[in-house]
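Kindly review both lines to help learners:
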Amino acid sequence: MRLVLLAKKSPLISSGTMALVRSRTRRGRDAPKGNPMRTVKVGLIGLGTVGSGVVEILTRHGADFRRRAGVDIELTRVADRRVERAVELGIPAERVTDDAFAIIADPEIDIVIELIGGVGVAREVVVGALKAGKSVVTANKALMAAHGQEVMEAAATAGVDIAFEAAVGGGIPIISPL
């Protein structure tokens, strides 16, 4: 089984393209037996409509990711200006911060999911995460339109991945193949 994670070969899991995690195994098939379970630690920045949906998917479907893809996706840290929003979503308070850059600085985080939008702070967060050696997933159309080349170059220089399918392929069913 190859796990499709980001835009090029990923040192974290393997290779492929995707906005979060998708297995190339067919729907309804389990991950091959004998593969060791891998844990991917995720830092999520932004708990608006999309960010809250990501939390819900990771919470409700964690067992599906483990069974079908052989990956345990751990939502390790969350950043949002409204800390109380994360707590309302059931995220333990000790995992929540209002400082997006704390997610980037956390050495335990493997992948940063940027869902804050805009081009100012979002650019700093995405480029900073890439330079810190973390792969990034973003749904930020404006960022990729305005700074896509810089973001791609930062990922290539750091040897990590940038996934932006959610920014350019809203009609592509990303999660349903799981």
Summary: Residues 141-158 form the longest helix (18 residues). The helical segments are 49-60, 62-69, 83-88, 100-105, 120-131, 141-158, 165-168. The chain has a mean pLDDT of 78.
